[in-house]
Structure formats: C-alpha cells, structure tokens
Amino acid sequence: MVVQPYLYFYGRCEEALAFYEQALGAQVVGKMRNKEAPGDFAAQGEAGERIMHASFKVGQTTLMATDGMPNQTPVPPYSGFSIAISLENPAKGKKIFDALAQGGEIRFPWQSTFWATGFGMVVDKFGVPWMVNVENTQP
C-alpha cells in the first residue's frame, strides 16, 4: 500500500510545481492538462490549460497535484494535517524551511528542540502546511 498526498491548487498548480522544484529539489514526474483529456472530458480555453493531474517526487516520496476540476469551487484552506520532511543535515533542513517560508507563514520558528537538532513549522504561500525536522542524533 502507498499513501500519497493529493494537493489542490485551484489555478496555481503550475506555479506550485515550479516553487517545489526550487524549494525542495522536487522532480515533476508527469503532468496532464484538462485539454489533454479524452473526448468529452477535455476542457477548452483557459480551463483547458489548467493542470488536471501532476505527480512530483520529493526525495523518496511521490506527491500528486491538480488545479481541480473546471468550475470547481475552492475549498477552505488545508487544515488538520502537515506534510513532514525528515532530514539528517541541519543546514539542509534550515535551507528547506527558509525556502518554504518565502511568501508563507512561519508557525513554529526554526530551532533546536529536545527531540530535534532543527525543527520548524511553516505554511507555504499555497496554504500547504509543512513540518521540517532534523532528528537529534545525540542521545
């Protein structure tokens, strides 16, 4: 079994994918626009340019993304979860945290804690909540 987050960006998916490539070193694996759907499912005009489905890898994890269905009403901001990133290198953790924070909101500033060499919580500029954690390797 594989569990994968599926993120909705409501017209900003292309921008989000580019942001995650820069901030996280993500690699876009695939992307399909609404106009590329078969038959009656294909949308035209501006709706056709929107991303129906994309997948991207961050480290060993594949996440999925979309602009949503044409004419879909955006839902309220994400709540009730965070996407956690675990790293071994504190400098890399801080770099990723800072990149995700650009244009976003820091919920827990980057710092060392009793469980981590470095930890921080941020909601990025697309409303996606992240936790960046560098485990404490010292007992």
TrEMBL record:
Signal peptide: none annotated. InterPro entries: Glyas_Bleomycin-R_OHBP_Dase (IPR029068), PhnB-like (IPR028973). SUPFAM superfamilies: Glyoxalase/Bleomycin resistance protein/Dihydroxybiphenyl dioxygenase. Residues 4-132 form the PhnB-like domain. It holds the Pfam family 3-dmu-9_3-mt. Gene3D superfamilies: 2,3-Dihydroxybiphenyl 1,2-Dioxygenase, domain 1. It comes from the Bacteria. This is VOC family protein.
